[in-house]
């Protein structure tokens, strides 16, 4: 056997060993991520179970209280700072735990504080949560994002990395009702987008969704049931149309 052949065999064995070690490390990382994701899901399930139990125990009293808009607004007036911090904090937590729906919190905000203030509370919560998510993803990357999403979600939006005007495309996607905004908030931290642009897009882009919810809840609390029903109908129609439009938009950009 020539020296060159022997060297090639040694090199090939070294490459194979390096590949195997790399695959093992990747498998170990995936296993660690899967375990951490399981812990996060278990904690979330436990919290939801506790909340469900609390609802079963106290729901009749809470429902009776919440059914009286005057009582609710008198309470939030008496506890002005605490009530707004509580609703804003819950809204921010919902954005961070992206698998939770945001509409109930937005409806509660509009019902308790009225349209204008309810909208401002939701937007402030969105700005705070989006900022925290952006910088956390910048720090921990996929090891954080992977706790909430599979790789398939990331691959679904891989086309955004190649968009010529990434910030404009992200804004368009955010403004379309029915799109996965909470995931895109995490995804933005994995891109080259600058923080001011991400903050503006993730905050202002939620306005259509927030406004339809707070208008409906505020109108309901004021007894304007026609406006409330109309707002809900508009929100549902926008979500359905937005979902269809987004799928066409995504297919067009991919193509």
Residue share in helices? Answer: over 70%
Low-pLDDT parts are 20-27
| Overall pLDDT level | 76
**Could you say which structural class the secondary elements and strand pairing correspond to?**
mainly alpha
The succession of helices and strands, N to C, reads HHHHHHHHHHHH
What is the rounded distance between the termini?
53 Å
Q: Can you give a write-up of this model?
A:
The chain has 255 residues and is mainly alpha-helical. The protein has helices spanning 3-66, 69-78, 80-96, 103-113, 115-140, 142-145, 151-156, 166-175, 181-188, 195-204, 207-221, 225-254. Helix 5 (115-140) runs antiparallel to helix 10 and helix 8 runs parallel beside helix 10 (195-204). It is globular, with a radius of gyration of 24 Å.
What does the secondary structure layout of this molecule look like, with pairings?
Elements: H1 3-66, H2 69-78, H3 80-96, H4 103-113, H5 115-140, H6 142-145, H7 151-156, H8 166-175, H9 181-188, H10 195-204, H11 207-221, H12 225-254
Helix pairs in contact: 2-3, 3-4, 3-5, 4-5, 4-11, 5-9, 5-10, 5-11, 8-10, 11-12
Concise account of the structure shown:
The protein has 255 residues and is an all-alpha fold.
Structure characteristics:
globular, mainly alpha, 12 helices, 255 residues
